[in-house]
Specification:
158 residues; mainly beta; Metal Binding Protein, Guanine Nucleotide Exchange Factor, Chain A; 3-stranded antiparallel beta sheet; 30% strand; globular
Length: 158
């Protein structure tokens, strides 16, 4: 891979770089659902992970693993199983999430019953709701850009 395997949290307090990636998966376990506040947790195994700005705070989610997140903005960042030496990084935290596509689903016993139907949901197309389009056009993002920066002023939570 020639693209940099870098990423970080939404506010820019925590940044990482990985030397190489392994298998990407979508985990349906209840702990991943809670960590992401979503229907599943998308992770990719990463090797040679270095924290290039800050470091995640960790929550001990079980007797076997910890989960890392940004203590300022709350972005989920890692799943770290005790003794494995492998850091699972959140796919959406990469500057280019397309580098970390999932290849399998794990822990299907907790899979929410409607997940398989998500691709069939209607999509709101531009022009369907002009007021919503105008709102979206007025949004100014304060999140960290999808690339490394030498300097970045972190907006504190509040």
């Amino acid at each position: 891979m020639t693209a940099p395997l870098s990423g970080g949290c939404q506010c820019g307090s925590v940044r990482f770089r990985a030397e190489r990636l392994g298998r990407g998966s979508i985990c349906h376990c209840r702990m991943c659902q809670k960590q992401f506040g979503s229907f599943y947790g998308p992770f990719v195994s990463a090797y040679g992970v270095a924290w290039t700005r800050g470091e995640p705070k960790r929550f001990r989610s079980s007797n076997k693993a910890s989960r890392g997140f940004c203590s300022n903005c709350g972005t989920p960042l890692t799943y770290e199983e005790d003794g494995s030496g492998i850091v699972e990084l959140a796919m959406g935290a990469f500057d280019d999430p397309t580098l970390a596509a999932p290849v399998m689903q794990v822990n299907p016993n907790d899979k929410l019953p409607f997940v398989d139907g998500l691709p069939g949901l209607r999509t709101r197309a531009p022009g369907d709701e002009p007021q919503r389009d105008a709102f979206l056009a007025s949004v100014v993002s304060y999140q960290h850009p999808d690339h490394d920066t030498d300097n970045w002023v972190v907006r504190e939570a509040g």
